[in-house]
Amino acid sequence: MSPTKNPAIGCTRREAKGNKSHANYITKPDNRCYRLLRALMSGPVTREQADKLAPASNAPHYVMLLRRAGVAINCERRCFVDGDGITRCPGTYHLTPEGRDAARLLLAEVAA
Questions:
Q1: Band of pLDDT at residue 54, cut at 50, 70 and 90
Q2: Most C-beta atoms within 10 A of its C-beta, which of 12, 40, 82, 108?
């Protein structure tokens, strides 16, 4: 098995020969995914915090990559009316218990 970099996914993947059900699985998060995972392990992260952590202006993209990697991440939306009278519903991400287990596995790959 040889690691490859898939820029569309942003994570290192391993290609398993002869086993199509596990043909591609993420083994190591890239730096942005790694920082986001570390923060989520500490507790809930707002969309704005995630953008600063990445640093990127599209943190939901990295949440999607982590979800595709098997990390269960919930998003709790809280709606309010801002000072301009516009309803806003920013999200706060948090790991499920299963997501926490998957995050530990991915983070262990980085440490190895």
A1: confident
A2: 40
